[in-house]
């Protein structure tokens, strides 16, 4: 499974803890993000990848799904198991938190 929908993500979040990475820029994240999401901008991923666990599946979200797919491709090349959230925050209908 290389991708899931936002509806599938919402169901997962309701039943188990997961590692959800938000690869948008800090201002996008601050404006509204999923509470469980950890900010890791795509541009910082190469420097920060060593801090991620290869033991757990990583779920990756962005605004529309394009940057998160790039992150998934990179993570997969590095030996991680990563899943793209298709549609990204544009398709997310659940609650969001902001830090603005």
From TrEMBL:
Family annotation (InterPro entries): GlpE_sulfurtransferase (IPR050229), Rhodanese-like_dom (IPR001763), Rhodanese-like_dom_sf (IPR036873)
Domain spans labelled Rhodanese: 14-97
Pfam families registered for this protein in UniProt: Rhodanese
Domain of life: Bacteria
Record SUPFAM superfamilies: Rhodanese/Cell cycle control phosphatase (SSF52821)
CDD domains tied to this protein: RHOD (cd00158)
The protein's name: Rhodanese-like domain-containing protein
Organism expressing this protein natively: Lacticaseibacillus pabuli
């Amino acid at each position: 499974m290389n991708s899931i929908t936002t509806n599938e993500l919402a169901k997962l979040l309701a039943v188990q803890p997961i590692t959800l990475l938000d690869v948008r820029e800090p201002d996008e994240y601050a404006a509204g993000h999923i509470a469980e999401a950890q900010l890791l901008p795509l541009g910082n991923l190469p420097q920060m990848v060593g801090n991620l666990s290869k033991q757990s599946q990583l779920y990756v979200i962005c605004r529309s799904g394009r940057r998160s797919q790039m992150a998934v491709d990179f993570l997969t090349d590095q030996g991680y198991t990563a899943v793209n959230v298709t549609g990204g925050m544009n398709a997310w209908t659940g609650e969001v938190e902001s830090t603005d």
